[in-house]
Write a structure and sequence with these properties.
By secondary structure, the chain is of the alpha/beta class. It has one domain: UDP-N-acetylmuramoyl-L-alanine:D-glutamate ligase, CATH 3.40.1190.20. It has 9 helices and 14 strands. Strand 13 and strand 14 form a beta hairpin. Helix 3 runs parallel beside helix 4, helix 7 runs antiparallel to helix 8 and helix 8 packs across helix 9. It is globular, with a radius of gyration of 19 Å. The mean pLDDT is 89.
Length: 328
Amino acid sequence: MSSAHPTPNPAVLDKFSKLRLAVIGDSMVDRFLWGKVERISPEAPVPVVKIDRETIKLGGAANVAANIRALGAEVVLFGLNGEDEAGIWLTKLLLDRGIDADGMVESKDRPTTIKTRIIAHNQQVVRTDREDDSPLNQNLIDQLLEKLTAMGPFDGYILSDYGKGVLTDSALRNSIAVAQASGSPVIVDPKKGDYSQYRGVTSLTPNQKEAEQACALAISDEASLTRAGNILLKRTAAEAVLITRGEHGMALFNKDASEHHLPTVARKVFDVTGAGDTVISVYTTALAAGADFATAASLANHAAGVAVREVGTVAVTADQLRSALTGD
C-alpha cells in the first residue's frame, strides 16, 4: 500500500538537543580550490585554473556528525585519523564544530582520506583523492570498538560506510551488536554490494543506484522500486528501508509491508554533494527522538531539500529545518 505523509510537526525538533548519538565510519576532509580559467595550458590540452581561495570542510562520516551537531544533538565520531596535515585539519574542524573526537583512532601508516575538488566558475574541473581504502587492521578495529563500548550507550547509532576500510566485517558485526544491546536505533548508509553484512540494523538509507546494484535490479517504475525495497528488507532483516531517489524524492518500505512515497521538496538544486549525509543524520536523530519511520523520513526529505540549495557539503540546522517545515 502506497501513501504520502503529511508535513511533520516541528515539535519533534525540540527533542534533538537532549540526544547523544554515535557516528561510526569513514571520515574524510573535503577540500575545495576555487578559481578562474583564463587560458589553456601550453603543456597539455587542459585548462589552467588560477586559484584565488580555498575552503576545507568535513566529509564522509565526519560530515554526518556535523549534520547531527547542527541539529542540536551531541555527537561522538568514531573512525580513523592519519598522522598527517589532513588529519590536523580534520581534528581542528571537528573541534570547531563541537564534535566529540575522542572516538577517533590514529594511524601513522594510513593517510587521512582527503578529496580535493578544483572548481572554476562554479564548475568542478577535476577531483583528486588521497586515500587508502584497504580494510583496517584488527588492532585498530579493536581500539575503535573499545571506545564505542566505553563511551556508550547512545540514543542512536549511524554506520556511515564509504568503503574506505573502517567498517570491516568485524567492525560492522560488533558495532551492530553494541547498538542492539543498547536498544537504540542503528541506521546504516550502505556502500558495499553485499547487504547481508548489515543484517540486524534498524534501517538503511541507500540511494537508488546503490539499491539497484545491491539487488541486481534496474529500478524503472514503482513495481521494480517496491521489489527492490522488499529484497533489501528481507536481506537485512531491517525494520525499514529508505531509498533516496534524487529529484524523484524518497521511498520508505516498512517490514509491515506499508510504503510511503515522498516527492522531493527541493525547489532549486545546486549541488547534491553530502545530501545523503543530511538524510541519514536527520532520519536517525528523529528516530532517536521517538519519531516513527514515516515521520523521520519526511523530516529527512525536507532537510535534503535545504541541503541541495548550496554548493558543497552543508550541515542543515534545526532552525533551517523548522523554517522548511513551516514554509518560511
